[in-house]
Amino acid sequence: MAFMAALLYHAGPGMSQQHNYDFLVIGSGIAGLSFALKAARAGNVAIITKKKSAESNTNYAQGGIAAVTSAEDSFESHIQDTLNAGAGLCKEDVVRAIVSEGPAIVRDLAEIGVRFSERENARGEYDLGKEGGHTKRRVLHAGDITGREIERALLAAAAAEKNIAIFENLLAIDLITTRKLRQPGPNRCLGAYVLDEFSGEVSVFAARVTLLATGGSGKVYLYTSNPDIASGDGVAMAYRAGASVANMEFIQFHPTCLYHPKAKSFLISEAVRGEGAVLLGKDGQPFMKKHHPMADLAPRDIVARAIDAEMKRTGADSAFLDITHKDAGFVQKRFPNIHAKCLEFGFDMTKTPLPIVPAAHYQCGGVVTNVDGETDITGLLAAGEVACTGLHGANRLASNSLLEAVVVAERAAKKLTSSPPDLPPASYHLPSWQSGNTGDPDELVVVTHNWDEIRRLMWDYVGIVRTDKRLLRARARIQNLQREINQFYWNYKVTPDLIELRNLALVAELIIESALLRRESRGLHCTLDYPHALPAAYDTVLRKA
Ligand code: FAD
Ligand code: SIN
Q1: How much is the pLDDT for 473?
Q2: I need a surface site. Which of 185, 211, 231, 398 has the fewest CB within 10 A?
Q3: Angle between the N-to-C axes of helices 496-517 and 443-461, in degrees from 0 to 180, rounded to the nearest 10
């Protein structure tokens, strides 16, 4: 553990350690840290995170954070762009609330030390980028490593806060709820079971309030821009605990990830198109004008589908992203990280078009919350990519997720500090973790095999363009895999890989079930069986019986 908290104590002989906190935050990306910094004013906070604290989707964000900060922009314009991208499924009140808090959020981030890029020769004025679906320049960025800069500043602020303890390499296995403990009354979250990745011990973290800030689930797909932490743990834990999960079929595929066997789908930011890059087919011809009036800067679902169609039509392995017509000095200065990374793989983007393919990037659905992060379980909040507030609808507008994460996390913390929830009774000693004790020699190969199989089947059968036949095939496969994984899970000692595999399988199942429930094509869910959107928009909500 990176940090020993003052409040650590032993719950009693024969029981696992119980750590008591006012607030338990699961995840140290932008949502978890933003919440913790505000909640620390009202009580002590434990942040647990399953790897090093910076390892998160946040850390890899490139384009930036969308917010209205220029005189040429307006809230109404940002709201309309969000609603258009969301294809009729956004909750307009949520969109209005989140967009209108954008400028204050930018000020908060700047205050804690985030250094956003400024315009040359105009100090004090932010340099604003443009991305798909935006009709105005409104994306604040820190070069092309915005997420790394935000994560650095938030972690530094959290480290300086005496009421916050950060525990690295602790993986939350499951939420502890009154329902799970078979207690009467409404379901209430009491904390979580947590695995120490080094010692293999499972302890109890008890808290008045638990925030899920575990990010997304990109690893469900074979090709993804996401780092390894994105295995959908939060959605899986919340679903198992009885929370509602919505709109999981809306998986956003980022149109432009570098096509190279060793690049692990490295993202080429949409901001590159915002500065004039054009998508080309294998014949070297631009093709986006055929698909949308905004051409290369159309909303992301449309661009990803157009690339997919172009590749299928021509039998090409990739499309190409061309910014060679722009001044090489400008490109290197605006996109230093992307330029350098591409050079490592042998591509000089100032001289040759980059081979690109779409890859799974963002989970638009998630644990159902309101704009204050409240779920339908008392004492359980969710914020960031794990949550579904209704902001994104059927397709997220670029750079709206960092914005949403901070707004919702801060609102959640503010609401708690103004009306703190009741403490669970002081005598609350939660039962220790029970599972099998032995390791199994066969385990590694089964875990690896099933992990690969899930990711491939999701890519092949539940990808950018879907059919009922393929979805039903995927459902049958995933149900078999679930049976095998559960058998393993309950009979043998839990390991991080096994826990993530179990979560990945459940999230895959939730995506498939939601996709089967959506009998229309809308936003990111495109099915050949129902090619049109239905007149009335609806959410696909799943909840464990
Ligand atoms: P994350 O930042 O992913 O943090 C999740 C945290 O939870 C991590 O610390 C993880 O280790 C921890 N965790 C997960 N499971 C467990 C568990 N079981 N136990 C303990 N800890 C756990 N969005 C934008 O708005 N603008 C952009 O420019 C942008 N660019 C992007 C570029 C890339 C390459 C990627 C992958 C995403 C990008 N996004 C962007 C999306 C955005 O980065 C994410 O949606 C956002 O950062 C999510 O923040 P979060 O706090 O919800 O989760
Ligand atoms: C990008 O930089 O293209 C990613 C932006 C986002 O996912 O919002």
Answers
A1: 98
A2: 185
A3: 20
Expressed in angstroms, the distance from the first to the final Cα of the chain is 37
Please give the Cα distance from 448 to 384 (Å, whole number).
Answer: 29
Burial 158-177 (b: 16+ CB within 10 A, else e): beeeebbbbbbbbbbbbbbb
| Res 121: pLDDT | 80
Token output for 275 = 């500065």
Q: Which atom of ligand 2 is nearest to the CA of 62?
A: 2
- Domains of the chain by start residue, with CATH: 18-250+364-422 (3.50.50.60), 256-360 (3.90.700.10), 444-527 (1.20.58.100)
- In residues, how long is the chain? 545
Output the CA angle 175-179-181, nearest 5 degrees. Answer: 80
- Does residue 368 contact residue 245 with C-beta atoms inside 8 Å? yes
Whether residue 441 has pLDDT greater than 90: no
DSSP-assigned states of every residue in 104-158: HHHHHHHHTT----B-TT-TTSB-EE--TT-SS--EE-STT-HHHHHHHHHHHHH
**Judging by beta carbons within 10 Å of its beta carbon (0-12, 13-18, 19+), is residue 329 exposed, middle or buried?**
exposed
Q: In the structure encoding, which two tokens stand for residue 179, read together?
A: 């329902």
Which among 188, 208, 273, 300 is annotated as catalytic? 300
Query: Over the stretch 172-182, which tens digit does the pLDDT of each residue have?
Result: 999 999 999 99
What's the pLDDT tens digit per position in 94-146? 999 999 999 999 999 999 999 999 998 877 899 999 999 999 999 999 999 99
DSSP letter string, 499-539: HHHHHHHHHHHHHHHHHHH--S-BTTBEETTS-S--SS---
Give per-residue pLDDT as tens, 413-431.
999 888 776 666 545 789 9
Structural tokens at position 94:
């949520």
CB 174 within 8 A of CB 241: yes
pLDDT-based confidence at residue 149 (cuts at 50, 70, 90): very high
Nearest C-alpha neighbor of 67 from the set 100, 25, 30, 26: 100
Dump the DSSP string for 315-363: T-S-EEEE-TTS-HHHHHHHSHHHHHHHHHTT--TTTSPEEEEEEEEEE
Query: How far does CA 54 lie from the centroid of its chain?
Result: 15
Residues with CB under 6 A from ligand 1: 26-32, 48-51, 55-58, 60-65, 146-147, 171-172, 213-216, 225-226, 229, 233, 267, 362, 384-386, 399-402, 405
List the residue whose alpha carbon is closest to atom 1 of ligand 2.
269
Buried b / exposed e over 89-115, threshold 16 CB at 10 Å, is bbbeebbbbbbebbeebbebbeebebe
Rounded to whole angstroms, the Cα distance separating 484 from 478 reads: 10
C-alpha to C-alpha distance for 167 and 26, rounded to whole angstroms:
10
Copy the structure tokens of residue 461. 């059968």
Number of CB atoms found within 10 A of residue 513's CB = 17
Q: Can you give the pLDDT at residue 428?
A: 73
